[in-house]
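Worked example

This section walks through a single chain of length 384. The input is the sequence exactly as stored; nothing has been trimmed or padded.
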Amino acid sequence: MQRTVSIALTAALCGGAAGGIAGLVAGGDATTPVAGHGPALTQSAQAASTADAPTPAAMYRRDAPGVVVITATETKRVAPSIFTPSSTEKVQSLGSGFVIDRKGDIVTNDHVVAGASGIRVGFSGGTKYPAKVVGADASSDLAVVRVDAPPSALHPLTFDDSGATQVGDPVYAIGNPFGLDRTMTAGIVSATGRDIQAPDGLTIPNAIQTDAPINHGNSGGPLLDGLGHVIGVNAQIQGGTVDANVGVGFAIPSAAARSIAQQLIAKGHVEHSWIGVQVETIPAGVSTLVHGTPRQGVAIARVVKGSPAARAGLRPATHQVTADGETVLVGGDSIVRLDGKPIDTGAQLADAVARRKPGDRISVEAVRGGHSRVVQVTLGDMPT
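Given that input, the structure is written out below as tokens.
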């Protein structure tokens, strides 16, 4: 399973395959998160000359001052026992973040600051400032906090284009693993296009997988490319029975992080496009049975009442059948294309919807009873 990489501290302050309803909803492996006017986007690292790349040491000197330690305090109730009455205790979680503008805006993970009654941000010079949440989005596991700090303390990092990232590219993580502030680790991009699970159970598409060591406390810190620019926000680690890094970490791509940060700064919340269906991937080999064609697609298991899908006339399956050892949904619509592009899995549908904005019109090719038709769906804003 995937685990959060923020650290929980108590004591001293005491007094991730099925689809769900999301932008679609789509499935993915079960996961658990780790832990100016908008940041600028530079040219892609892929387009930059190798000669332009700084050494790791030079990169650290330039970028580490822009990485911060985030301490979030939450007050929790302690249940009474036969020996003690009910009480409260203060619990701290420790994570990372990075400065993105001269106004004091800092990107981190939602799970680092969720439920916090107090937040403090520590800078490389040792100074600490209280912070407030500008906006948070559990569906993307991203948040922006703001500090009132002098300009000399603020060293904004620059986003780069995560879409140009390729497997094998060198990457570097700077964060606060186990409370060891501004630790730098190195590795490569192990894979792109991974799906991870957000704190609210929705799918975060296109995560970057890396073997750069990421541990508890790295949540919200930057994943840097070979130029020292941010291509991801470190969020999760894969782990079985251990709580430390095993060489499989995940970062939310900068393409999403930059856009979401801008929305949080501007509006305090994020608009997520929504179609309002729950789907199941049709197993290869039984698609002809489901909708009378060899195309794979996804079968609609549920349509939310009043949703964009419902208004467009899409219908859920009416019953199940078993064929070749596979249980599949039949009797309703199966989505096989969106805007002309094949849809073979729930994750593909979720990603396609997530890339669009509320109000966008999409063309959905649906098959029911062996007959194909194209319907126009106007995407809505995901209900809270």
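What to look for: The mean pLDDT is 83.
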